[in-house]
């Protein structure tokens, strides 16, 4: 059996560890043949493949990014897109199925292709941790560690100048990165999409921290909405799946906080540094385990499903389950952190 592997959507630490796990177990245990698909779904529609053997994956578990390249291409768009054309391209190259490693957009495309008869197996990837079918996704732990380190650095410069520092993190429409990194860094306010706050509430917490002699640290998720906002702030257009590119809410909050509190305030958008660098030990292990179990699922013909973490076990779930509701932060978890605010 000949299998193509692709990584699609935003890159994150751990992608290479998944690729390594699939290829090593697939070749040594099951004698499968693998090809790499360049740049996500673009490589599928363009037929851009290359051999993927043990040699290509050696030493990859600690390497960030993805050796396959990635993009946000929609496989149903363009003159070579669509399930019928994809099936012809795969047949031309003797490829029996695809392992798609990606997040919500990638798996939505994989589900659509699977329903149209293309054999696809999924592996969840998102630093946002927003896929409900898996308890954690690789990349999340590394992103939290990077964000926490950045916030620790912001706190030292904030303390030096007695400034209010705002750190904006990724997460799209869920607040897991903000919650975990904010708690780890000892933030005085954490703003997440699941719990809208007013500017008055934020300023009150900032003032309380300042009155205690602290330099306030505000952590805000890119998808956070102030009370009264209909949707998350976005001025960067849409991606290939017609989803708004979020980011910049901290730059809206900073001048308002400074104006209302009189405390000099600076904002920092951490952005893509959260995606870069080597994966944490946790993410290396999780990504490798997902890759190993993906190889088992290929042999079992578990198309239309994805491997996922449940507790400490790796299980298989249908795409439909993976693409249901987002894995949002429960109110109870936010209230735990809120006890530390101000």
UniProtKB/TrEMBL annotation:
Mg(2+) binds at residue 104. It comes from the Bacteria. Its main location: cytoplasm. Pfam families: PFK. GO terms for biological process: canonical glycolysis; fructose 1,6-bisphosphate metabolic process; fructose 6-phosphate metabolic process. One of its GO terms (cellular component) is 6-phosphofructokinase complex. It catalyses: beta-D-fructose 6-phosphate + ATP = beta-D-fructose 1,6-bisphosphate + ADP + H(+). PROSITE patterns: PHOSPHOFRUCTOKINASE. InterPro entries: ATP_PFK (IPR022953), ATP_PFK_prok-type (IPR012003), Phosphofructokinase_CS (IPR015912), Phosphofructokinase_dom (IPR000023), Phosphofructokinase_III (IPR012829), PKF_sf (IPR035966). NCBIfam families: PFK_mixed, PRK03202.1. This is ATP-dependent 6-phosphofructokinase. It comes from Microbacterium azadirachtae.
